[in-house]
Design goal:
The chain has 145 residues and is of the alpha+beta class. The protein has a domain of 50 residues. The protein is 21% helix and 38% strand. It has 2 helices and 9 strands. A hairpin with a 4-residue loop joins strand 8 and strand 9. The chain is globular.
Length: 145
């Protein structure tokens, strides 16, 4: 394996080239990877919410490397936590999940978007391998941690 780069929560978009970008501990946070498999370049973010302007800016940045038809997207995390005392977090997660599902289907070819939401009361790790142009998602329940 070549270079690896862990993307921390709320770090913002991290760009990688011919390396492994990964993030862990995605509970109600969203992990979103955008990448061009043939160019071995991509971006990964670990964030509580995806804002419209931030996603549009990232898609625009990505288009300096290739077309949206060539761009792939992977989305994961966004777990619900039924034990939360403050359900506003789950409400924000539902809003982000709905928004991302709609906007990515509208902006990218359907076959280019893979959405695999985290399990309820779970943690998710996302690996985006820019060397091979592949990704891997691991879901874990809190009880297993």
């Amino acid at each position: 394996m070549g270079k690896e780069r862990e993307v921390e929560q709320c770090e913002g978009w991290v760009q990688g080239n011919e390396c492994m970008l990964w993030t862990r501990g995605l509970a109600n946070c969203i992990g979103l990877g955008l990448y061009f498999p043939h160019l071995k370049i991509g971006w990964l973010i670990h964030t509580p919410m995806i804002e419209h302007e931030a996603l549009e800016a990232m898609l625009t940045t990505a288009q300096t490397y290739g077309t949206r038809k060539q761009l792939q997207a992977i989305v994961t995390g966004g777990s619900y936590d039924p034990k939360l005392q403050d359900q506003t977090i789950d409400q924000a997660t539902k809003k982000s999940r709905s928004y991302l599902g709609k906007i990515l289907k509208k902006k990218l070819p359907q076959k280019a978007t893979h959405i695999d939401w985290g399990t309820d009361d779970g943690l998710t790790t996302l690996y985006l391998d820019l060397i091979t142009g592949t990704y891997k998602i691991e879901h874990t329940n809190y009880a297993e941690e």
